[in-house]
Each structure stands twice: as C-alpha cells, then as structure tokens.
Amino acid sequence: MAFSSCDDFLTIAPETQLSSVTFFQTEGDFAQAVNAAYAPLRSYYNGQAWLLGELHSDNAYYMRNVLFGAVENQEDLADFSVPVSNGTTPNGNVLGAWRTLYLVVARTNQVLGTIDAVEFNEASKNNIKGQALFLRSIAYFHLVRYFGAVPLHLMPVSGREGSALPLSEESAVLDQIVRDLVEAVQYLPQKSQQQLGRVTQGAARTLLADVYVYLKRWPDAEQILAPVISSGEYSLMPSYAMAFAGNIGNKNNAESVFEVQYREGPEGLQGSFLYGFTPRPMTVNEVRSLFGTGNPQPIDGQGNNIPTPDIIAAYENGDLRKDASITFLEISGRPGTVKFTPYIKKFLSTHAQHNNHGVNWPVYRYSEVLLLMAEALNEQGKSGDATGLLNEVRSRAGLASSSATGQALMREAIFKERRVELAFENKRWFDIMRTDRIQEIIVPYGQRIVANPLEYYYPPIPGAVPRNNVFTNFSKFYPYPAAESDLSPFF
Questions:
Q1: Helix H or strand E encompassing 78
Q2: CB within 8 A of 407, min separation 6: which ones?
Q3: DSSP character string of 379-442
Q4: Is there a contact between 60 and 430 (Cβ–Cβ < 8 Å)?
Q5: Where are the beta strands (DSSP E) in 308-405?
Q6: ∠47-53-59 over CA atoms, to 5°?
C-alpha cells in the first residue's frame, strides 16, 4: 500500500500546477483556451495593426511635437525609413506585431493539437476548432503580408528545441492558410447561430476570399464569397456612420462580419486607440470636449495616424463618408497659426474614464465583402456584374453610380472605392503592396511631404523639417525583428 500511494503521488499532477497535458479535459477547458486565443487581437488592433498598416501608407501621417523629442519607432513607419541591418530591424513596433501575432498562433496550436483527443459534443468541438483555425489563419495572413517568409508553427511547442523553425516560403504559408480556412468554413455556424463577437462561417469565408484575392485566384474568391452575399446574414447599415460601434448597442451590427471586442471598464478588456489617434498636445478641456470623460487628462507627446491631405482629397464631392470618417479639432497648443487638425472620427465614442473605451475594431464589414466580390468578378471579365456591387457601396455613401466601363477602369474604380470606404481600417498598405503600386503611390507621396512639410503637420519652427532618411525604404515586406533574429539561427 505504501508503494502504491507513493506511485499515485508521483504520477498525478497537483491541481494547482496546470499544463497543456493536465488542463485540456472538458469542453469548458477548450472554450476557455479559444477565448485566450482571441485576447492578443485586442493588443494588436489597439496599436500595432494601425501603426504597421494605416500609418505606413498615404492615408495617415505622424505629427511631430518638437518639444517632446524623437520617437523613431513611429516616425520610421510613417516615413518609410525603417532601419535595416542584415535583413533585421530594431523597430519596436515591428517586434510587437511579430510577437503578438505569434502568441495567437501559439494559443490556437494548443487547442488544435489536443482537441481531437478529448470526447465531447461534436458540434461544440467543431465550433471551437473552426474558431481556432480562423484565428491562426488571420494571424498568419498578417504575418505573411508583413514579412513574406515566416516560421510556420502548426503544433504546440513543448520546449526550447521546437521553438525555432526555418522560414517557410510565402507560398507555403498561404497554402496552409487556405487549407485551414477551407476546413474552418465547414465547422463554423452562421452569424445568427453564433455567440456575438465570435468567428462565424461568414467571417471565415470573407478571410478566405481576402486570401484568394491576394493570390489572384479570382474564381475561388467569387465562389467562396457568393454564399456570404446570399445568406441574408449581412446587410449594409442605413448610413455609413451607423456601421461603426460608436455605442454599446451598435456593436456586431448587421454590417459586421468580424470585429475585435473591447469593453470599457476595470477588467483589462478596454481599448485606448482613440487616444493614439489624437493630435498633440491637447488640453484637459480639449480632451473632455472630444471624449466626454469624467476624469480627462492632458495629452502630450507625438500625434499618430493623423489623416493626410491626400485621403481628405480622395473623397468625391458629396461623399457622406468624408464627414463621417474625419473631423477637425482645434488644438490650441499646436505651434503656428493653423490650429485645426484632422482626427479620425469614424470610431469616436464618448466614454467615462480617460484612456479606457469599449469601441470595437471592425476587421471585416459587409461593404468589403461587396468590394472583394466586385474585384473578383471584374478580374474575370465580368465588369458589368462588378458594377452593381460597387454601386451598392457608393449609393449608401450618397454618390451616383460609377461611370467606369471596361475592366481597367473598373479595376481603378474599385481600388479608389476601397480607399475611402475602408479608410483607417488598416487596409490601405495591404492594398498598395498587393497591387504592386508602391513606387507609383508612395514615392510621389513622400516627395509631396518633403516639398511641403507644413501641409503634413510639421510645426513652423526652425529645424522642424523632414529627416535625411525619410522615404528611403520602399520594401514590400518589413525586415525581421532583430530581437527575434537573436533567438533563431534561421534568420
């Protein structure tokens, strides 16, 4: 008996010491684990996504405060001057995106690597698997568009040995994303049958269509999107402004395909990106006027994600999206005589506590479904069918039907429509790079900034001019994070 008791003690793990071996026993354990896989997206969309996506485009720029000093991590992204040495960069935002997205990968791999060994309700199991497959796919889709070849982890890493993998080619990563999403579509329920905020079949189909468009697999994109449009699960909101979660009752609305969930309060589920977008400096009264908080605090430092004159000029006359997307704030502390500064309005919401809001981030909206389908149809020579979808989006914006005819003109019309419809939703850089228009768009954009810095929010102070290295790195992909390179022998 003594030996038996000793053996039991040695082989049964204490309940206070959980691991992937001891934790995953029930449906509830896997539901908890997939919840944890969603969590890093809050951090990612709160900062890194718009820093590496929107700020790194011609839609938004960096607003300098010479009294605060240099913040190269943001400046280098806005200025297309990310430093590179042996294929790596010390940029902290690039490192943050890498680590946050791979955290999603690691957590989903824990779920997918263990779930089939545990017996529970088949429908619930499929739902959890589908969510995990989607989350792993969206993480890899961002990674592959940022870096090209990346390590492709598909199994839980149990120790140091497996933590570093060779780089997989971009095509191999994209092939895996497609396989995962094809499987996820089979597992996931429709939006009306899924808990709000969780991944749905429509979200998986939309992400897969986005991947197919990136790969120029136009017939596949059309085929996977058609059921989303015909499902009756989604529709455009009556007005553009209503498409965004400006209040709790408007979250996950009829136009929402997938959005990252934030909740105001002390639980640590809040967002703060509304503050990241503010021009600087702002007084207490200016902060209170903008956000309505009960404890406003002054905001100093550098302004990020300020709408450029280029995006402001991109809206056609009469486009209702312009006033819904951009407002102008009077910033009393801004140097010089120009005090009014543009601010991203489309996400704006009043809230109780400073730097703590519950505004969700829209990752995919139904209007993008329509534009992705329009692009897929047009590239197959079905320009007439594409026109109807494009005009659905334009009509809601208060615009007349597009006059574009023929494939080339329709391609340009869709490209321009995506810019204004999806402005500040982190789509612009990906659209520029996937269509190979970096030289065409970003080079002259940089030339305009160098020639007219005051128009791009440089203060009228001696010495406040573009740095010598601005617009010198036009690479399609970011260099690898130097801190991660130090840990891996493969890059």
A1: helix 72-78
A2: 378, 379, 381, 383
A3: TTT-HHHHHHHHHHHHHHTT-PPP---HHHHHHHHHHHHHHHHTTTTT-HHHHHHHTT-IIIII
A4: no
A5: 326-330, 340-344, 361-365
A6: 110
Backbone dihedral angles phi then psi of residue 154, each to the nearest 5 degrees: -125, 0
Q: Give the CA dihedral 459, 462, 468, 473, nearest 10 degrees.
A: 0
483 Cβ contact partners less than 8 Å away, ≥ 6 residues apart: 90, 95
CA–CA distance, 397 with 241 (Å, rounded to integer): 10
Instruction: Determine the residue type at 97.
Output: A
Q: How many CA atoms lie within 13 A of 140 on its CB side?
A: 33
DSSP E strand boundaries for 45-185: 60-63, 88-89, 150-151, 167-168
Q: Say if residues 302 and 51 touch (Cβ distance below 8 Å).
A: no
> Is residue 468 classed exposed, middle or buried when 0-12, 13-18 and 19+ CB atoms within 10 A define those classes?
exposed
Place of tokens 């929402």: 256
Ordered alpha helix ranges (H), 158-294? 170-187, 201-214, 218-230, 273-276, 284-291
Q: Report the alpha-carbon distance of residue 137 to residue 180 in Å, rounded.
A: 7
User: For 421-441, what is each residue's pLDDT tens digit?
Assistant: 999 999 999 999 999 999 999
CB distance 76 to 82 below 8 Å: yes
**How many other C-beta atoms can be found within 10 angstroms of the C-beta atom of residue 474?**
11
DSSP annotation of 455 reads G
Please state the length of the chain.
Answer: 491
Tell me: pLDDT of 4 over 60. no
Q: How confident is the model at residue 123 (pLDDT cuts 50, 70, 90)?
A: very high
- Residue 129 near residue 115, CB atoms below 8 Å: yes
Ordered DSSP codes for 215-254: TT-HHHHHHHHHHHHHSSS----SSSGGGS-SSGGGTT-T
Residue 326 in tokens: 């951009």
The model's pLDDT over 258-312, given as tens digits with 9 standing for 90+, comes to 999 999 999 999 999 999 999 999 999 999 999 999 999 999 988 899 999 999 9
CA 60 distance to own-chain centroid: 15
pTM value?
A: 0.94
What Rg do the C-alpha atoms of the chain give, in angstroms? 24
